[in-house]
Amino acid sequence: MLQQFRHLDQEILFEIKKVVFELQLSKRPFLPKNLMYQIYKFLQLRECATCSQVCKFWMICYNDIYFSYSFFREFETSRFNEKELATVLKRSSKQLKHIKKVRDIIKGQKISSFLEKTELRTMLSDNSQQQGSLLELFKLEPKKQYTSVFLTDKDLNSICKESYKSLQYIQLISCQFMTGKGFEVIGKCSQLSLINIQSNCNLKDQNVQVILEQVQELKTLMLLKCDGLTNQIFEIIGNYCKRLERLDIGCNPQLDLIKCSPLKRIESLQSLSIKENVVTNEALEIITTNLYKLHSLNLEGCQEMNGYSLLQIQKLNLQRINLKKIQFKEEGVILLIIQQRSTISFFLQRALSCCL
User: Whose CA is closest to 136, among 167, 99, 157, 160?
Assistant: First the structure.
């Protein structure tokens, strides 16, 4: 029923007023504020403003949502227009710590420009008012490809300092203004389950090592388009990510996947993505020999792949594989494989058909 509040018009508003009037006549109590907050959570801010016209009590509840951790638990800048976001940053940041963090990040930029170029999302932890337990999720990324977002080392340090006990998911996409020192503060958040860092040439092997030495519960690690990484990253990940289930290290063609054998130490590893990397037959053989427990393998757009590579993949007991955008160089080998379809697993037949 709450979903019906999403698209308010004058007729619905009239019905709401009618119900409230009947409650007043019967001298029945109004809905508790907490329940009112739950209703408002299903609405956009402009719709909440419409609801506030129903009666004085609803207006009071509307004014109070600006100071409600419950209403702003999941905060996404994309939900607001320029005027709404300006109002939220002005009113809510006085009492809500995470809104103050958002205001500090946007400070110095035009709100209209920020909304046009950037997407920022946060989610409060259940114990958000306890020291070190502010955010559960922090995500910052550009809306358009090949653009950067503005986040300083100081901003990230402030976020991690307030959330070192609670932060579980952090995604930093195209934060080109950050340096290695800024990334190292991520290691203070020892409860992290997911780290996603993309499109940053300032991230080095030693920065990743400092993070992984302290984060023991990591399940997903994504390091894409990070040109500062070297082959040493495989040794670092193999040494410190004992509970890792998903690794995405694609779009790093400077890495030599022949050096990836240290990943075999991660017995929990189920998913590997190396898309748009150079994958030779020798590298693929090392992967299939050492990472035989993989359930998912992403080879989209990988270079140097050929028919022999497909035969190597059969060694794995895969449930999912991605072979899109692969250009096979040896047409004769492809024809040979097509003739021997009975020896190729069903998912590889489909993938090969798509490639052709």
Answer: 167
